[in-house]
């Protein structure tokens, strides 16, 4: 009966009634004999409301002050959760990120955790109390200013604390039952995955599955910390994310044939756009100049393809995908370097979607690609860009073909749940 | 051009528009060459809303967690004020009570300031920035937990910081023009007092004037720190509270005759009730047993009167006043000790009011009492209890006579403003 770290998102603590329900669950975990550390996000829409308030005062709030403002949100939720536990007769103490020892760099709004020194949490646990910790926040090592961790910050806080406290498991509570083999709103027969390897979860997070953030999975993998993604609305087992690959027979809970290619899930992402730089002079270094210009505009590029250069013109086209929201600044950056590089044009296309097949088993099964592209061809889906890793195949298709592509691949790899339709899934990228 | 500490209450920072207005004023003070430290309360009704939230979760929120919750209110306002200053091109940094070095004891909800170590504030000022500090909060020296200072806490934070930083003045911004010679809703000709001694302000605060809290005036007096009470809606000079007595000719700005008894103001208070313990055996120690019982119920007694004991019965009546809100618990405590002490009955009367005349000049002018009681007699006001200090005379009268008593005394001491009616005054105890 070791330590359990539980993380509850904003929708799990949206109002007083939700907070009371969460408190019941926390108290039950404690009664079962565990030490419990709880990480909470801000209640419901609190963070958005605080951002609205800031924008009423200034169009460009400073990072230090915006972090100070936003961290009020978790301060409220953690105190209220601790009170609700007190009302159940369970001692709970709330701690800010700073009090919990979440030490970060000074990058306001997207701080990185440098160290976790949870001395006060250990004291609270030693006293038999439950520790409630504000997610998403920390304190800068250099300036002692309050910082926020940015997207996925509360999940990352939970995993970081769990690692520092050597917890048995980090439970991430959400409003869905776990990680699914596809978005059930597209594939009604998608099934809940009982178990995923870290690298599969990382690929899924990178490919549009929103249930866990890339960053928290990376952190968990580094410390081999098991994550259990589950619903705060039920007691069902969710999805375990661990370092035991699903191709390891001892972990194959479903008794499936381990010699079959093990494919976990189909992910999709409609948040990207495609930029094509037309007629790039085919000289060494031109592609690097293009990508440097885009990087300096603060944009992360995802997939890249360069077509074969035309013998007649000595020029090639380079296409890449990037977050839609970065499109304007990336195109502007490219326009600036156009005269120097001498390419012909820039095309911006936000009518695309990305569909990915993920599975740790595919690395040893050469037939996966063939099945994948057969399925797309049979469904009449045209592929614009292809990108692969050892455990993933991704394609860019027209946005309107995404649903059809997801369904075709899901069926082709026998991922459909034999027991019928899954519950509706709110956690992937639509 | 020294350091100015400014404190803005919740009504001065109620919404984004108010925050922007306050930021303009702060920026103007900085531009005038001052170093500026600003103490803010929570915006508008934030604190009440947070208390409501706590009550939805538990009827008895723990003190530690309630303080953690409530301090989110000032965290929001201080960050927003700092952002608004940033928007004006003025560098401002916000600090929590803990970051500002407000060290307290561990009495959650009513913590006392033990020490102020404003190292980070000094750094910010040295960098040319304005420091924005959360009022009402500190950090416990022993437990390192976040505390709140209770009633008058933000004013006290401002005065304590001003003292620790050796400020020229602590400006308390409010929604009235300063401290008045009486409540203008009762006395339309009441005038704004340009200057008051600490002890006069203390007596006024104790007698129902709500514009400054007793505790912050006591703190300012201990450090001889000038307080300037003024309106956040105008640039007019308000009321200076200093240790220069108004009988000191050098401080008599109005050129009045210093040989005249200097009377500052008439205060009134309708928040008290009167308890009469009837037929107390006239033996040494009985009064002490009564007041001990009331004190153990957590009640502060204000005025006390004991009538002459009856020769026939050997018994006397003891009356005292106390906050109306403490009436139930005080009476219950007395009922418990009634058999042991053997008094006859307890009467509770919440239909009273207290009217007080305050002025540092009255100590050397024996005619003051005569004029005071003449005025009440002429107005037909019956006096139930009398209490005096060197610079104050207070009487308990029927609640319905309070207005008449205030007007009669105000006129009798020539306090009416020769220039006519003052602006309406929202700061005293109605």
Automatic annotation (TrEMBL), chains A, B:
One of its GO terms (molecular function) is ATP binding. Its EC number is 2.7.2.4. Gene3D superfamilies: Acetylglutamate kinase-like, VC0802-like. GO terms for biological process: diaminopimelate biosynthetic process; homoserine biosynthetic process; lysine biosynthetic process via diaminopimelate; threonine biosynthetic process. Pathway: Amino-acid biosynthesis; L-methionine biosynthesis via de novo pathway; L-homoserine from L-aspartate: step 1/3; Amino-acid biosynthesis; L-threonine biosynthesis; L-threonine from L-aspartate: step 1/5; Amino-acid biosynthesis; L-lysine biosynthesis via DAP pathway; (S)-tetrahydrodipicolinate from L-aspartate: step 1/4. CDD domains: AAK_AKii-LysC-BS, ACT_AK-LysC-DapG-like_2, ACT_AKii-LysC-BS-like_1. Keywords: Amino-acid biosynthesis, ATP-binding, Diaminopimelate biosynthesis, Kinase, Lysine biosynthesis, Nucleotide-binding, Transferase. Residues 275-360 form the ACT domain. ATP binds at residues 7-10, 174-175, 185, 210-211. Substrate binds at residues 47, 74. InterPro entries: AceGlu_kinase-like_sf, ACT-like_dom_sf, ACT_Aspartokinase, ACT_dom, AKii-LysC-BS, Asp/Glu/Uridylate_kinase, Asp_kin_monofn, Asp_kinase. Pfam families: AA_kinase (PF00696), ACT_9 (PF22468). GO terms for cellular component: cytosol. It catalyses: L-aspartate + ATP = 4-phospho-L-aspartate + ADP. It is an enzyme of class 2 (transferase). Belongs to the aspartokinase family. Catalyzes the phosphorylation of the beta-carboxyl group of aspartic acid with ATP to yield 4-phospho-L-aspartate, which is involved in the branched biosynthetic pathway leading to the biosynthesis of amino acids lysine, threonine, isoleucine and methionine. This is Aspartokinase. It comes from Motilibacter rhizosphaerae.
